[in-house]
Amino acid sequence: MKNHNLFVALRAAFPADLERTAIETADGPGAPLYYTWRDLERGTAMLANLLAGLELPAGARVAVQTEKSVEALMLYLAVLRAGYVYLPLNTAYQAAEIEYFIGNAEPSVVVCARKHFGWVSKIAFNAGTAHVFTLDDDRSGSLLDRAAMCSDQHLPVPRAENDLAAILYTSGTTGRSKGAMLTHGNLLSNARVLKDYWGWRSDDVLIHALPIFHVHGLFVASHGALLAGAKMIWLAKFDPRKVIERLPEATVFMGVPTLYVRMLAEPSLSRQACAHMRLFIAGSAPLLIETFNEWAERTGHVILERYGMSETVMLSSNPYDPAQGERRGGTVGFPLPGVGLRIRDDKGHPLPAGEIGNIEVKGPNVFKGYWRMPEKTAEDFTTDLWFKTGDVGKVGADGYVSIVGRSKDLIISGGYNVYPAEVEDCINQMPGVAESAVVGVRHADFGEAVVAVVVPKPGAALDGAAITAALKSRIANFKVPKAVFVLADLPRNAMGKVQKNLLREQYKTLFVA
How far is Cα 290 from Cα 330, in angstroms, rounded to an integer? Predict the structure, then answer.
């Protein structure tokens, strides 16, 4: 019987010469460090053997909140290899958020940075987690100490296409975060489609400057390079000057729009610097048409914008091959091969080309459902099993897909999802706060910025700066409002519903020159 373990397919794509450099670090402790394909093979085997030796239950989750490192990538691959389920957690998450994720996912193993071991281990052990390891970005920590004693030979555990490979938590607009369950088949099918659609080659060199706790950096970028047997230049932290400096050695770069904005601010960005590049890809947030046009003018390269979600990995993409069409600013291209995408109205009726409605999708890349939320899973799928993305858009007569907004007021700031209800809940619990409303407004750097409007209780005096400071200790920094306004009341319609559209209109020029 065929082994559908995603690691097997990635390992099969390693080049015949395992002594070739697979990953070169461009920053961080000891840089440059050179990891060969053999290093990836041996390192993932040792880590997989460590996990296997823990005698974890079938389908065990391994939750990871560490800084970006090559060893952290190896850990992800080792979890796949050992047949367990990988659970990446944003490094910005605070204690209350981690407590929820660990309580909900019930991981058997938690891996964290050494500086957080005290509070993370307390949360994990209280929740029944059996094993807590540490891993730092300088190749130290108890995880590597233990793995060093394990064999570097390991046979990947057999897995079916429908077996879980990862759970990615994606916040809900109401209530708690949801764990999107992605299978080995979901991830491999999408990686193979993108390999062909984006023209990945073994002689490509990817500049990897994204975090590895979400779809873009962990799946789209890493799987792309690994499945092509292509080298990665690895940046633990995005630095626009350092990226531009390495462009002459590279062929592919992926980034959220914020990264392109920051590179455009650098005088060193030029056509000459980009002359060796094959492809620039943008996603995870809307790319402003000004950024799209300025990049083409400065570099001679047209950015390829694509569209995806935690629940589906990639759904659509502008063409790489000019024979398939132009890369059109303001659109996310065509549905990828094998992906069905349709536009329907609120009553479920199909809409013609050019009409704006709800985006629904179907395909082998679409997730299995939400972890331990069967009702929510059923709610987000149609009766004929298309996934309701929650995004609003249209498909032109020529097939190009445009995203025009998001139902449920999702804010995407710097490539990260921010759900107003979660931030409002934190603000509303503060002393003296009667109610609040959180909206996203246009921001030249982040795409969208979070803005909060707060109404005080009678007799209370609120200070926006104090609210911001309090939030920084409670929620991830990317969720913290960039501006807080204290008003006497919120605009409402006749039914008493807060009119967030009026707030967005009121503050729409706040961060735009």
Answer: 10
Cα–Cα separations (whole angstroms), residue 10 to 37, 114, 140, 184, 368: 11, 30, 26, 11, 21
Regarding predicted confidence, which is higher, 61 or 408? 61
E-only strand ranges, 218-258: 231-234, 252-255
CA distances, 242 to each of 27, 28, 237, 412 (Å): 9, 12, 10, 26
Least confident of 50-64, 72-86, 476-490, 499-513: 499-513
Burial class (CB in 10 A: 0-12, 13-18, 19+), 497: exposed
- Residue 169 pairs in a beta bridge with 179
Of 147-151, 224-228, 405-409, where does mean pLDDT reach its minimum?
405-409
CA gap 447, 445 in Å, rounded: 6
pLDDT tens-digit profile of 480-512?
A: 999 999 999 999 765 456 788 899 999 999 998
With both helix axes pointing from N to C terminus, report the angle between 464-472 and 420-428 in degrees, rounded to the nearest 10. 110
Contacts of 383 (CB under 8 A, 6+ apart): none
Claim: this prediction has a pTM higher than 0.90:
no
Long-range contacts of 462-471 (CB under 8 A, 24+ apart): 462/432, 462/433, 462/486, 467/427, 467/430, 467/433, 470/430, 471/423, 471/426, 471/427
- Residues 6 or more apart in contact with residue 345 via CB below 8 angstroms: 351, 357, 358
- Listed in order, strand segments (DSSP E) in 125-177 are 131-134, 164-170
- Indicate the residue type of 188: L
Q: State how far the Cα of 126 lies from the Cα of 419, in Å rounded to an integer.
A: 28
Please identify which residue in the block is written with the tokens 């979600």: 309
Q: Is 401 exposed, middle or buried (0-12, 13-18, 19+ CB in 10 A)?
A: buried
pLDDT value, residue 496? 53
Q: Which of 115, 139, 135, 145 is nearest to 31 (CA)?
A: 139
Closest residue by Cα to residue 203 from 224, 231, 226: 231
The amino acid occupying position 467 is I
Round to whole Å and give the CA distance between 149 and 46: 8
pLDDT at residue number 493: 67
